[in-house]
Write a structure and sequence with these properties.
Layout: H1 2-22, H2 24-41, H3 51-54, H4 60-72, E1 77-84, H5 92-108, E2 112-116, E3 122-127, E4 130-135, H6 156-159, H7 164-167, E5 175-181, H8 194-207, E6 215-220, H9 222-254, H10 258-282, H11 293-314, H12 319-322
Helix pairs in contact: 2-10, 5-8, 9-10, 10-11
Length: about 325
């Protein structure tokens, strides 16, 4: 039964091949039409970066992650770890400059839902029959005096609280800021990592004094991973361009003609246009795996093209015989 099934499949594809060979102009017209349609659909291609949007919703861990994200409203959150390269503690002037920048982002940046840091850590205190909430850090940035501007800031009071491992390090000198961003609809799914790039640029230009190269900000958190993932996808485009140039040069050196490399590259480009255009038509986004489809197509098509090129060099009068 299996042998007969394979025979039927083989006869089916042979019939398609004979029909295509008998009408080459019609097949070429259909192929060009499909390519143009797929090319027109490329601007609608979306990039999916959030893992819980990619995962199968039937997976238990994925549904749990969605539930936690919904309850804590931190789906698009980053941690900005602020430290000094020299290892010295922050002065009150330096910390307050960063704190004021963080508050300005919370007030004026439409992409930011909330922003928090060490100065927002409060603990309850019962005085008499009244309940108060006080800050753990004895720091008043709104009334900072020149006499205290160069006093070192210690985050030791926070290190012993549940916030300690999140907002400061073991030394009690460095600290972290948390930002939560709004959901947005666009080509990057429900969140645009570009807003993180703008935030980092603002941090370097406004939160750090001009000429100060000692303070740096390191990015972490779930949305931080998506930011670096988007940068990797953009860098892959450059890698694909270098791969195209490499193939053209290698075929020029091995076969002796520029035309061979150009034919291969044009074939690969048409193939990737049809592939990504088809994905856009059915609504499949680009993710960390499908982003490497061009490299996979190069690997898959290279061997066959080398074989066909060798046959054509042996019998240069007809491409049909080479195939």
């Amino acid at each position: 039964m299996i042998v007969s099934s394979f025979r039927e499949i083989r006869l089916f594809f042979h019939g398609i091949f004979r029909a295509a060979s008998a009408r080459p102009k019609l097949i070429l017209l259909i192929f060009v039409a499909i390519t143009l349609v797929c090319l027109a659909m490329l601007p609608r291609m979306k990039v999916e970066l959030r893992m819980y949007d990619i995962d199968d919703p039937r997976v238990v861990s994925a549904s749990t992650l969605r539930e936690i994200t919904r309850e804590f409203h931190d789906g698009n959150s980053i941690l900005l770890f602020v430290k000094k390269r020299s290892g010295k503690p922050f002065t009150e002037n330096e910390y307050c400059r960063i704190e004021n920048w963080k508050e300005s982002q919370h007030r004026s940046n439409p992409d930011v839902i909330s922003a928090s840091g060490p100065l927002q850590v409060i603990v309850p205190a019962l005085i008499g029959n009244r309940l108060f909430y006080r800050r753990l850090l004895d720091l008043h940035c709104d009334s900072l005096t020149p006499a205290r501007a160069n006093e070192p800031v210690s985050f030791e009071p926070i290190r012993t609280t549940p916030w300690g491992e999140l907002l400061t390090d073991n030394s009690g000198r460095d600290f972290a800021l948390q930002f939560i961003f709004r959901d947005q609809s666009g080509r990057s799914g429900r969140f645009d990592p570009g807003v993180i790039g703008k935030l980092l640029s603002s941090f370097k230009s406004h939160a750090i004094a001009a000429g100060d190269h000692d303070i740096e900000g390191l990015l972490g958190g779930r949305a931080g991973f998506q930011f670096y993932e988007m940068r990797a996808i953009v860098h892959d485009l450059w890698v694909n361009g270098l791969l195209i140039l490499l193939l053209i040069v290698l075929f020029r050196l091995s076969i002796g003609t520029w035309r061979s490399g150009l034919i291969l590259v044009s074939t690969l480009l048409v193939s990737i246009i049809i592939t990504y255009g088809g994905m856009a038509i059915v609504g499949l986004p680009i993710d960390t795996l499908s982003n490497s489809l061009f490299v996979l197509l190069c690997i898959a098509g290279l061997e066959d093209f080398v074989f066909i090129s060798h046959q054509h060099l042996t019998h240069p009068k007809s491409w049909r015989r080479s195939f």
